[in-house]
Specification:
Layout (H helix, E strand, L loop, with lengths): L6 E3 L2 E3 L3 E3 L9 H13 L4 E3 L15 H13 L6 E6 L1 E2 L2 E2 L3 H15 L4 E6 L8 H13 L3 E7 L3 H14 L4 E5 L13 H9 L2 E2 L25 H5 L5 H17 L3 H10 L8 E2 L4 H8 L8 H11 L1
Helix pairs in contact: 2-3, 3-4, 5-6, 8-9, 8-11
Amino acid sequence: MALDTRKTIGSLRVSPLALGGNVFGWTADETSSFAVLDAYVEAGGNFIDTADAYSVWVEGHTGGESESIIGRWIAARGNRSDLVIATKVGAHPRLKGLSAATITKAVEASLTRLRTDYVDLYYTHVDDESVPVPEFLTALDSLVTAGKVRETGASNIAPSRLHEALAFSEKEKISRYAAVQPHYNLIVRDLYEGGLARVTARHGLAVVPYFALAKGFLTGKYLPGRQTDSARGGQAARYLETPRGRRVLATLHAVAAAHHVQPAAVALAWLAAQPTVTAPLASARTPQQLEQLLAFSDITLSQGELDALTAASD
C-alpha cells in the first residue's frame, strides 16, 4: 500500500492520492490528525490539501484550524521540503472573495498558520465573478513571482470563466492555473464531465477531484436500514434514496469483494482511471480509515469493471 508513484501538477510532483485536511480540527483532533499525517507520509504520500476556511462550520471555530494543525505537525516533524502543501483562498468568512487585497492578506495568514514561507499549490476556493479575471490572476502571479506560491489552481469554477482565465494568462504571459479541483466522483459526475472536463483536457490541466467518496457514501458504510454515526451521515445517506445510488453501491460492493478490498478503494481506483484525473482527494479521521483508502493503489480495475461501475452511475 505505497504511494511512491508521482504525478505532475505544473512543476510539482505529487502522490496519486491527495490527503484531505478538512477533518483536521473537526472530526479528527490534533493527536488523531498527527497520526493520520504520519501514516500517510510513511506510505509514501506527500500531497496534503487544506484551506483557510477549514473548519469554520464548527461551532466556536473561526477558520484556519486545519492549516494550524498541519503547521504544527510540519514544525514537529521538520519535513516541509518533502511535502506538497495545497491550500485555498476565497471562502474564509473574514477574507471572502478574490480581490487583490483579499488574496494578499489571505496568503500571509495561511503562511503563518502553516509555518512555512511558501505554498506549493494555491487554489481559488470559490470563483468570485464580481472580480475581473485580470485582477485576481495578476494578484496570484505576483505571489508566484515573489516565491510565496509555486503553482496555482481553481476550484468551483465555471468552464467559461476557467477558459477566460487561461486565455488571459497566455495573452499576458503570466503564471496560469496548473490544476482544477472539481466536485467529482462515481455518484456525482455531471458537475465535471462535459464543459469543465473539455477545458481541462484542452489545456492539459491537472485534476484533483474533491468529495471523491461522495461525503462517505462510496465507503460502503451507508446501507439501507443501517444507522451510521457520521458528521456527514445525512448528506451521504440521501444517495440511498435513489435507484441509481443503490445500483452504484451494489456494483461497488461486488467489485470490492472480487479484489478483497473495501468499497472506498474501488471508488478511488475508478476515479483515478478517468481521463484527465491526476489524483483523487480523500480524507481520513484515523490511520485505519486511511489504510482502506491506500489500498486503491494496489488494485487495477479491468475494463469490464470500470464499464460496469460507469454504467451503474449513468
